[in-house]
Amino acid sequence: MKTISVLKALVLSLLLSACAENNFSNNVVVNSDAAIVGGDKVSSSDPIAARTVYIKDTNKKQSCSGIIISSRLILTAAHCVYKAKASDIEVRFGLTGRDAVKVAKQIEVHTHYVQLTLLKNMNDVALIQLASAIPSNYRITSILEDFSILKPGTTVTTAGYGYSNARWETGVGTLRKTNLRIATEAFSETTVAIDQLNTDSGSCHGDSGGPALVQTNQGLKVFGVANRITGKDKKLTKLCKGTAVYTRIDIYMPWILEKAAQLDPSARF
Predict the structure, then answer these.
(1) 106 SS3 class
(2) Domains present along the chain, CATH in parentheses
(3) Does the predicted TM-score (pTM) go above 0.85?
(4) What is the rounded radius of gyration, in angstroms, for the C-alpha atoms of the chain?
(5) Per residue in 140-197, pLDDT tens?
(6) Distance CA 152, CA 56 (A)
């Protein structure tokens, strides 16, 4: 019985990486008004466009998203790059990942990362060190320092290069965003929950590692990276309906600072 319960928990919690190879020339778009699932395509003038990246594992054919936190460091989800070779990881820039491509030099996955999605604290964070600096027209993202401003009901923005249509599994490779609300700021000690059960938009496969951001008096700040969708209904979670779980960046700042000192000493947070 215990084994069955564990398997059931694993099924009802889906990591958000997308394993289908995106074909830029022959991509079929179904319900083109849908975005990140149900949001909007990001414009070139949007600050999110200059801070979010498309991550491609060329060996596993897996798509994810990430956020720029220094001139040579990308923050993403650990499950996007776990056991991957740095030479297989491409970081692509642009609204469709065509502006520039940087190859990873080194990958650092959190020491205590665990793959089991039934655990609330997966420590699902990783850093990608680029072989060369980000393009000059891209920007470093400011990290939210005061997490206490996030309360249930707070409007936040999520972004990523994932599916625009979960049912048809299409749309990977185009940067989209949507506005959602915090369900609970304490889903676990290391994660925050965002409600996308009763909405027409939300994070989906391929958005893993992508940012959750909030507008502050000091501008747009990133506070989380996409981890998984969880919920009681298997069919709904498969369609990216449920609770979107984001890993809190503030909890992992000591680890980020330690690794950044090794990978990019010029980084300032």
Answers:
(1) strand
(2) 147-251 (2.40.10.10)
(3) yes
(4) 17
(5) 999 999 999 999 999 999 999 999 888 888 889 999 999 999 998 888 999 999 999 8
(6) 33
